[in-house]
Design a protein that fits this description.
Layout lengths: L1 H15 L9 E2 L9 E3 L1 H9 L3 H13 L8 E5 L3 E5 L2 H13 L16 E5 L11 H18 L4 E8 L4 H12 L10 H21 L2 H13 L3 H25 L5 E4 H14 L6 E3 L2 E5 L9 E5 L7 H15 L5 E7 L3 H14 L7 E6 L2 E3 L14 H15 L7 H21 L7 E3 L1 H4 L7 H20 L15 H6 L2 H11 L3 H20 L10 H21 L9
Parallel strand pairs: 5-6, 5-11, 6-7, 11-12, 13-14
Antiparallel strand pairs: 1-2, 2-4, 3-4, 8-9, 9-10
Helix pairs in contact: 1-3, 2-3, 4-20, 6-7, 6-8, 7-9, 10-11, 11-12, 13-14, 16-19, 16-20, 18-19, 19-20
């Protein structure tokens, strides 16, 4: 990459000036007028050398200019000691040519940062018998994007989903189903049956707090024991229905999982691991078994792994789950888990305990947390007055998109597909446009805007560029690099950065760098589109402008893919 060449130029100049090297920053200036790259090396070194940073910047600039390669058009000292690098016209046209040479395939923006690495990413994790809530949407969007970014960085990635198929939530749902046989109806669609189970769960959850605790606890015991025929029948039907509903949602979101881990399987495993390591890692306390993590790390605290009733806690189950993952994927280099922030504390304790039992896993576990989603101008209720689940958020957004696109003409199948992809883009981009740890304000209207900071805006920009290419084909104007426009466009000054952005996203596990970059590129292209006649047989530079448009579509489609968003050619 060009930034490595610039870093080498700087270090070679320092060697010739007999200045000891130090860490410095090389980045893109916010204002493109200040060059394509800028470094603070003079300011960093001036402090150590006790000299004026402006004068040192001039010295380093002059030394670089003595051996300036053709990849750099000029170098300037500016401000309080910055050194700015400008790239030549040829660099940008060649970068467009390189983008086109990839055909938009895996080489576009790819890197080998994770070459040879086997990575498992666990995300989404909805529980059967409960609604698919907004948190599941958030972890799905983040997890799927991270999985795709790592794949594009040459990792072998497997996708995992952890499901709570047993537990009190199941007993609450089954109690509710037993109160009203209509909720057990099997004549409706899978989605309708699943919705009825959600209603039953709400009934059970409310009753558990009021007057049905004993009965629901009894049902819970029977579920574990598989001792009641009627409850077994309801359980098997409910599990199948809710899991099928989840699969329909995954299909809409563009996710296919490789592994499903069940709580009923990992809980006994976790319990056994804890009991086997009492006295080594865990210790007994008031009838329970605990891990006093603060002995190992003062930032951590004591957590219960097995209760005084002998039941494994979330911590023990997580221990069993992690062990099950490493058994399922032997030789795995990294296990990534995406969850909400409230699970951060106990996950750190689990990782600490497991690293004592299996030191070889210590640097192979990564926990990424996300914030909460809130709604602009509304509380946690949908326009129908119901609590918003992940599924209703998708459906509500689809309704708004359908209303917005009602005057556009598509055949019915294409229309439904486009509406669905635009709704998913609206939600996913809203989640992915900021760093994963922050809370999100979801604005229904802004999220579906075709103008501004939104997923549909990115899709619309891509579709608009494709319409230009269709016109170019009809005019028989093919991409060519023979005659270049006199001016370098902002689009060119952004497109070549794509591999850098992907690399940064991969190294930091942060999709928002790609999301923000795509918005910047889309705005630049739309400005170019609005101020330039791209397809014009009389213009000798038209073929290059068409090539530039092709490059934009390649980068936009690949970038959207890395965010888990589809790129429709028409909207």
């Amino acid at each position: 990459m060009i930034q490595e060449k610039i870093k080498n130029l700087i270090n070679e100049a320092l060697d010739r000036l007999k200045i000891k090297k130090s860490d410095f920053i090389l980045e893109h200036p916010e204002d493109l007028k200040n060059g394509d790259y800028s470094t603070n090396v003079a300011m960093v070194l001036a402090k150590k050398l006790k000299t004026n940073p402006k004068n040192l910047a001039v010295q380093i600039r002059d030394e670089i200019n003595k051996n300036l390669p053709e990849e750099i058009s000029k170098v300037e000292a500016a401000g309080n000691g910055f050194i700015n690098f400008y790239l030549p016209h040829k660099f940008f046209s060649e970068s467009i040519e390189k983008i086109l040479s990839t055909g938009g395939g895996s080489a576009l923006g790819g890197n080998n940062m994770f070459a040879g690495k086997r990575v498992m990413v666990e995300y989404t994790d909805p529980n059967p018998f409960k609604p698919f809530h907004i948190g599941h949407l958030m972890t799905n969007a983040i997890g799927e994007s991270i999985a795709r970014i790592l794949e594009h960085s040459d990792a072998t990635v497997s996708r995992a989903n952890y499901q709570g198929d047993v537990g009190l939530h199941v007993a609450k749902a089954i109690w509710g189903l037993l109160q009203d046989e209509k909720l057990q109806g099997k004549s409706g669609s899978t989605a309708e049956q699943s919705a009825n189970i959600g209603v039953a769960y709400a009934l059970g959850a409310e009753a558990y707090e009021k007057n049905a605790k004993t009965k629901i606890d009894e049902i819970n015991k029977k579920i574990y024991e598989r001792s009641d025929k009627k409850i077994n029948e309801i359980y098997d039907w409910g599990f199948e229905v809710t899991m099928k509903t989840f699969e329909d949602i995954y299909d809409m979101l563009g996710t296919q999982f490789d592994f499903y881990f069940l709580e009923s399987v990992v809980a006994p495993s976790g319990r056994s691991i804890v009991k086997e390591n009492v006295g080594k890692v865990f210790e007994k306390s008031n009838g329970a078994i605990v891990f006093k993590a603060e002995k190992r790390d003062p930032k951590l605290h004591t957590r219960v792994f097995i209760t005084s009733q002998g039941l494994p806690t979330y911590e023990a189950k997580e221990l069993g789950l992690t062990m099950e993952k490493f058994k399922t994927a032997p030789g795995m280099d990294l296990s990534i888990v995406i969850t909400a922030q409230e699970q951060a504390d106990y996950m750190r304790v689990v990782e600490s305990a497991l690293s004592i039992i299996h030191p070889e896993f210590q640097n192979k576990m990564l926990h990424i947390t996300h914030g909460m989603m809130r709604f602009a101008g509304e509380k946690m209720s949908s326009r129908k007055g119901n609590v918003i689940t992940g599924e209703t958020l998708i459906q509500d957004t689809k309704m708004l998109v359908a209303e917005k696109m009602k005057d556009r003409s598509f055949d019915q199948d294409a229309e439904e597909k486009i509406i669905s992809s635009v709704a998913v883009a609206a939600i996913k981009y809203s989640i992915l446009k900021q760093s994963t740890g922050g809370n999100i304000i979801y604005d229904f209207d802004k999220s579906i805007s075709f103008e501004g900071d939104s997923g549909p805006y990115l899709q619309y920009s891509y579709a608009r560029a494709n319409s230009v290419l269709e016109k170019a084909k009809s005019e028989n104007i093919l991409p060519d690099f023979e005659v270049l426009p006199a001016e370098i466009t902002e689009v060119e000054k952004l497109l070549y950065k794509f591999p850098e952005v992907v690399s940064r996203s991969a190294s930091e596990y942060e999709p928002h760098y790609i999301a923000n970059y795509l918005i910047e590129v889309a705005r630049a292209f739309n400005s170019f589109y609005g101020n330039t006649v791209i397809v014009d047989k009389k213009d000798k530079t038209s073929s290059y402008k068409v090539a530039l448009t092709y490059a934009f579509t390649f980068v936009m489609k690949k970038g959207l893919h890395l965010l888990g968003i589809e790129a429709p050619t028409k909207m």
